[in-house]
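Follow-up to my earlier ticket, as requested here are the two runs.
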Amino acid sequence: MRKEILERYELSGANEIIINIATDRIEDLYNNFDKKSPFLKKDLSEDFVTYLIDCVSEIEKEKFLIQINLDTPAETSSVSRVQNSIHQFFLYMKELETKQMRAKAKTSMILLGIGLFLAFISLFLSNTTAQNGSLALGVLTEGLTVAAWVSLWEAIATFLIRWMPYRKKISLYEQIAHAKVTVTTEHQK
């Protein structure tokens, strides 16, 4: 299946996969709601961003370049601005994912601490319960044991499972941010 996916893309002379984007003008790569903003303050079009993410996810770790094919010629300054916009946008997305991953890790560490604390209290109370034989203390001890395991499970599950999507997105955004971006027009081909 992977070979079939890669065969859908053209290769450059340097044996890089070419992610082709065809549009009329460079302005089409930006959101419509901020048309009057200068290029440096505009957001990239959601469709454009989604397409890039989908393509890079599909080709995984293969070397690639982004080739934007315009129907109308663009000024040199516009070309450099779109290259910079792609770079800056995906570095920003990487930073957002990194912050979210850190927040998950922080929550996980708190849950780990709470779970360990509850487990120690539960062990202490279970020794006391064994000596006293109190039913109420036994129920409390069992409740604390369950709460400790739930807290520990959440912490461990976050470390082992939930952080992986963040790592993948961070890697993906970094790949796109550092990709070579070329802009051509129909007349240049």
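Run two:
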Amino acid sequence: MTTPIIVWIAMLAVFIVIEAATAQLVTIWFAAGALAALITALAHGPIALQVVVFVVVSIVALIATRPLVRKITNTKEARLNADRCIGQTAVVTEEINNIDGTGMAKTDGKVWTARSADGSVIPEGAQVTVDKIEGVKLIVSIPS
């Protein structure tokens, strides 16, 4: 075996071991490039051609699999059923006072702890809009 063949086999093995040891797609594209370069070396292609094949195949593999990788590694937050309350109208069931730390509002058939988005005191019985949810508290505001 010639040196370039040994180098490509070693690189292929290293990329595969790294890929197997990680939970994410990290080096799979380089493994594909190393395999293509190894095939080029076995066909007695010049070293410069082997390097070009390695780079081109690695880049093409990366571009071709990018949508799949995005789908797999998607870090978007999971939406909860409670998120559907955002934008809905709620009725204040206990005066909302951020300073005193009091306030309850009912929406979607459930009673939540509530806080005012702008810090204003909102009386019991008022209709408010749910702006967001922080933990288990509704952050609400009086509709304009």
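The only thing I checked on run two: The radius of gyration is 29 Å. Let me know what else you need.
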